[in-house]
Amino acid sequence: MVEIIEEKKKVLIGALVAVLVFGIIAVPLFLKKRGMVSPIGQEGKEGQEGLEGELLLWDDQAGFTFQYPEGLYLDDHPEDMENYAHLEISSTKETDGKILIFVSDSETKMIDDWVEKSEEARGAGVLDTTLAEVTAKKLLFEDPKKIVTAAIDPYQGLFLLELYPGKGGYWQKVYDQILKSFVFKPLTEEEQEILERTGGETSTGDENVIYEEEEVIE
What we know:
Layout: H1 2-33, E1 55-60, E2 64-69, E3 73-75, E4 85-90, E5 98-105, H2 111-117, E6 125-131, E7 134-142, E8 145-152, E9 157-164, H3 170-181, E10 183-184, H4 189-197
Antiparallel strand pairs: 1-2, 2-10, 3-4, 4-5, 5-9, 6-7, 7-8, 8-9
């Protein structure tokens, strides 16, 4: 009888070890599939006001990065063929709010011109702001209630970061964290060569340089 009990203990301990190993391997894979990426490290917690958990880094192919709190779901809408980026940030816990990020070509070079001409900005209260050190506008809408931060990056891409705040202040905190950590990625060497071949003019050492592109007629 003692031998049987000891054998059962060994089996039980082995099963517990297997469960722990499976959890260590499976959980990161599950999070990755849900649009979450690896934590940026302990330093990511600094300056995270009112948000729990680690900060994760989203690196988008449309040329930008930002940090967001773990526990959220990011859907990059691969079915959208009109925008360079269509990112939806949501949560199963905070279901009454969300954040959307769109990137598309801009028909204007200055954000002031876009606000003046765009139907999307009509009826909004407009405030001056910045996004990753680029001049931007904050659009305030009442019905439905939302906040949009709009900017045109140095390569004439229109960025729209839309906040649907829902109830409470959770999504406002997430939005502020995204804006604070938002970065425009520099062009790769290949992208730089394409831009130069199509008539783009760039310069280095001056963050306020306006990049101009000529229309290409095929």
